[in-house]
Amino acid sequence: MTPKYDVYCFGVLLFEVLYMVKPMKTQRQGIINPKLREQMDRQSLTFLTKIIDKCLNEHPVQRPTMDQVVKELEGVFELQWKHENHEHSTAADKDEVTSSYLLKLERLKIPLSEIKEATNGFDEAHFVAGGGFGLVYKGELDL
User: Fold this and answer.
1) How far is CA 74 from CA 24, 47, 48, 59, 68, in A?
2) Are 9 and 140 in contact (CB under 8 A)?
3) 3-class SS of residue 9
4) Which of 21, 38, 113, 118 could be 139's S-S partner, Cβ–Cβ 3.0 to 4.6 Å?
């Protein structure tokens, strides 16, 4: 296991979230999750798919580092944030928008108890892979 393998695994995770299917070598395209499509800016989606493609590159040396992936994802989030809030222009509005955005991010936090439940206590049957960033388990949450 190497950091480049971790990047690949992260790309698989992003792919599954975006397309709701596992990526296959023969086909790396799918129908974007309709809920994400209606929430995300078209340009943000385009950049996100490019990040996924880089992570899933067949040649590990051509994959980005996790630091590069994080920086590119931050750019996508910034672009999405600007798209969602383009009509707000005053400082007071920006503070309100920032607060609203932070509340949205807060909803993405998943309590450890729910993660343990979804992975059956990190049972070996839910183990996916391991690498420089730790062990990866798969589970399903009711959102």
Assistant:
1) 27, 11, 10, 24, 10
2) no
3) helix
4) 118
For 136, phi then psi, to 5°, come to -120, 130
Sorted by sequence, the CB contacts under 8 Å of residue 100 that are 6+ apart come out as none
Give CA–CA dist 122/137, Å, rounded: 7
Q: What is the distance between the alpha carbons of residues 39 and 35, in angstroms, rounded to a whole number? A: 6
Q: What is the pLDDT of residues 19-53, one digit of tens each?
A: 888 777 656 566 788 888 888 888 999 999 999 99
Architecture of domain 3-109: Orthogonal Bundle (1.10)
Query: In whole angstroms, what is the distance from residue 84 CA to residue 39 CA?
Result: 9
Give 75-131 pLDDT, tens digit per residue: 998 888 888 776 444 444 555 656 666 666 666 677 888 888 889 998 989 888 877
Judge contact between 60 and 6, C-beta under 8 A. Answer: no
| pTM of the model as a whole | 0.58
